[in-house]
Write a structure and sequence with these properties.
This protein has helices at 16-24, 44-50, 65-75, 95-106, 155-161, 172-183, 208-223, 233-239, 256-262, and strands at residues 3-9, 31-37, 57-59, 80-83, 88-90, 110-118, 126-130, 152-154, 188-199. By secondary structure, it is of the alpha/beta class. Strands 1, 2, 3, 4, 5, 6, 7, 8 and 9 form a nine-stranded mixed sheet that branches. Strand 6 (110-118) and strand 7 (126-130) form a beta hairpin.
Length: 272
């Protein structure tokens, strides 16, 4: 199965190397990496060639990250599509191989896994760990959603049920997953391992006003699909993230792939 990975970039020169490297070194052979750039004013586009990017790329102004992602989805030629942010990277070089294997063995429509947040400035420091857990669509009522960067969806699902809804500025990923998994009842499988390392600093959590705006959009995501959350659903969505700080996993980039490619100056994971 061919895999398309979409990365939306904008002034991402500081982190894009990690993203490109983690895709380029995947063991699964049939992968295209699509870069959708929002007319960066730094060296992002130049670095694509420097770091050996050979996939499709587009650089032009857009109307936000979800608009950029939709452009990538329209360009994707893979059977399976994943979205990897420009400051994130895969946890090891067999992530896509394991994802494809899960699709082939289960016949599912979507796959997701776990995610670790790393410090935005100290990428060898784990801030929290998001253990998504086994899939049960009723968990959406408890504010649950899978970590979007770990989600892989068949192209035919997007073609049947639509792309990101651009009327949502910060909750379009939540609306998409709610629509596909909860309302359209696609078949979903969980891979119980960390698939993505994500740098902290999400837009929706930068201030109280941003969080309130996101809360309103989360509510509208249900209503726009003709559904209603429970009275506690949206309150539990941010509260559920508290457990991500109590996993006890504050260390450990012991995987040789991570140490070699992202921390080449480290000989051991001790102290990380």
């Amino acid at each position: 199965m061919k895999v398309s990975i979409i990365t939306a970039t904008y002034n991402s020169e500081r982190t894009i190397k990690d993203t490109l490297t983690s895709v380029k070194q995947q063991t699964h052979e049939d992968v295209e990496h699509i870069i959708i750039d929002g007319a960066s004013t730094d060296k992002t586009i130049n670095l694509l060639d420097l770091y050996g990017h050979q996939g499709p790329k587009l650089s032009e102004e857009d109307n936000g990250i979800y608009h950029a992602m939709n452009k990538g989805l329209s360009m994707a030629g893979g059977d399976i599509i994943g979205i990897l942010n420009s400051d994130d990277f895969y946890s090891d070089n067999k992530v896509l191989e394991n994802v494809v294997k899960t699709f082939e063995e289960s016949g599912c429509d979507a796959v997701y896994g776990d995610l670790v947040y790393i410090d935005g400035k100290q990428s060898n420091k784990i801030v929290r760990k998001w253990i998504a857990g086994n899939y049960n669509k009723k968990l959406f009522y408890k504010g649950w959603m899978p970590p979007h960067p770990t989600v892989f969806i068949k192209k035919e699902v997007y073609e049947k049920y639509g792309l990101f809804n651009l009327k949502f500025k910060s909750s379009s990923d939540y609306e998409l997953l709610l629509r596909l998994m909860f309302l359209k009842n696609i078949k979903v499988e969980y891979i119980p391992q960390v698939l993505v390392h994500m740098r902290t600093g999400g837009q929706s959590n930068k201030s109280i006003s941003n969080r309130l705006a996101a809360h309103k959009e989360d509510y509208m995501a249900w209503l726009s699909n003709g559904a209603s959350p429970r009275w506690y659903t949206l309150a539990m969505k941010p509260l559920s993230k508290i457990m991500q700080f109590t996993t006890g996993e504050k260390r450990s980039y012991s995987d040789p792939f991570i140490l070699k490619n992202f921390y080449p100056d480290r000989r051991t994971s001790e102290g990380i």
